Amino acid sequence: MLTNYFKTAWRNLQKNRMFSILNIFGLALGLTVALLLSLFIIQEYSANQIPNREKIFRYLAHLNYDGGNEIWAGVPNAIGPAVKDNIPQVAWSARTLLNGFGENASFRVGNDAFTEDRLYWADPDIIEIFDLHIVHGDRQTALTEPNTILLSESKAKQYFGNENPVGKTVEMDRSNTLTVIGVYADLPPTVTFDAELIGSFNSTGFAKNITWDNASFETWIMLRETDDSRLVEDYLPKMMQEHFGSEGTYYTLSLQPLTDVHLHSTAINAYSNRKGDADQLGQLTYLAIALLLMAAINYMNLATARAQQRSKEVGVSKTLGASRSGLLGKFYAETAVLTCIAIGLGSVLAVLGIPLFNAMSGKTLAYDTLSHPVFLAGLPALWLSLTLVAGLYPALILSSYTPLEALQHGKVTRAGSTIFRRALVVLQFTASIVLIIGVVIMYRQMDFISHRKLGYNPENVLAISLGSLKNDQELDALRNQVGALAPTQSMVVSQAYPGKGESGHTLRKDDADKQGIMFRANRVDGETEAVLQLNLLAGRMVKERVDRDTTQEGGWIFEMVLNKYAVDYLGLTPEEALGKKPLAGIGDNTYVVGVVDNFNFSSLHDAIGAYAFTNTPQRLRYLLVRFATGDLRTTLQQYEQAFKQVAPDAPFDYTFLDSHLKSLYLADQQTASVLLAFSILAIFVGCLGLFGLAAFTAEKRTKEIGVRKVLGATVTSLVRLLSLDFVRLVAVAFVIACPLAYWGFSRWLDNFAYRIDIQWWMFALAGLAAVAIALLTVGWQAIRAAVANPVASLRDE
User: What is the pTM of this model?
Assistant: First the structure.
């Protein structure tokens, strides 16, 4: 019996090739995106799948201050050893520090130079915590000695080819020689710890300089049992009380399980770029389900659109004794064959689409996820559920006809089925209109961001990394070389550039102000105002050199320039702030010598905060150069040649400030691109459903159209008559979609401190686009029905 059902189903699909192609293509298209999203969702939920993952935690520092709070994955380097020494349930503990707090490192191997941004300095226990597979070297002694380094397999191959590099040396930043102590297998992209090179923590000065104040060290622990986390959580406030007393400090501590790290760290300031978003995964899950439902709806509409064509088939079958259950099995078999083909085609397209998905979304969807048990088990479950859902309505409708109804070729019309089909089309177009409105809003916000005045000018500013310079003499030589070049207009040596590399401090009004506000400090030496084109409100910029304080032995006078936000917090005018010595935690003899207007030093997701330029002792990491507009390639070559004259054996590492600024919104731009692609897909899939309903309507009203033509109706009036019904459906969808889109994308805009207002024309544009698309879709069917010969439609009585 089943074999017969499937044979008949295959013949019907071959017989009605246009219907089969439309349905298979529509289902496959929806399935392609749904499968890609499913693969990504499975991969994200499978992150950090390492042994003993439930026993691994990291410390978090919670900072509360006037006007807000922050969570950092970095804590002082004293925390890890202090807890391990007092809590025996801590089996392993490792501090990690991204090189230079995020500064690139330069390496030299023979004549080859490399620039690396994923060098971590870590304690030896990191090997046990993340279960690093040591390919070459001794696991027990790795990272125990200073000036040693572990290379990932990919880096070892890049540096030394197929040789075993253990015992060989690499030169870092032209000053430090590190011995390769081992090679570890590359960490999967689903593991949070994203080190490509790991240096021994005791190679750094921080191994001896233990601090309870500098919260820059991400510290991981592995417990002997998962429940031991309560002991550590209880001990943390006691430890802080013992060290700081009743006054406390600017942070409190907590533990975060590794199982929560990947999907629940979007609001946490951490070194790793490998962060997921639980809210986004929930939205993608709904989207995948919605796309599958839209594909199923298309099948329903296209299948029921053929109801009148197959009514005689049903009538003859029932007259010859076919039962309803037999007809149900027949129609379900047809749906099963079609969905099986669609799933096969969709799976192939999904595999081929993985590179495109990665490029558009900025994610790293691995092919290994295709073999995940959940995905493999989900395919047959998807086939079964899609067959049941998509085939349910057509099978019930077609098998429910009595022989009389079926053989009357549609003279009996069931209002309920027509309403249901219309409701399905409204549902599809509601989703499409919401996505169109969303695309308009997101692209307008991106345009707003790209054109907003920031308070400084990042264009035509080159940031040259100074990490590989050996001493001040080389720095002075580089300044002289760069300053002599024709494109150079101004330059400044700095600790950081806006939004990258500043140190964090607390600014307080007075001793009674216990919380204060966080501010970013940036040591500068040079023409800061000219390079960044800041608006100086009062005073001057800091001097290049500090002065000696003759009233104190060994004392120095430091200077700082605050932005207006910081001065407003202190309750001063720019002029009143000059000469003041604020409580800022960067030296007792630091005086305000200038005030600049507010500028957006971070992403527009964040409101403007407090900022300071100083000449306090901090490492200078960048040479910022404002250059004249011209041939960019030639200009870069000139700066590279100047750099190579000073450091010929170091890589020329640079970035543009405007490029860095754009990178802050890369995730938003990728989201907008993905939404645009989904919108086009949803509209296309919706049009297939509308096409099916239009075909059904035109066929059902064939005789009515014939009568109207005989009575003198024009083609134009008939097209208008048939199209008007569908415009009404789109209008209903528009009314439903508008409040949904407003609510959903208002929440998205709330992620920006500076945002556009949602305006009426955005909805009107989406509505007009939907109407135009609908008219184009149904127009062909309407014209085809209107120009048909009325004799052909009226003689079949």
Answer: 0.81
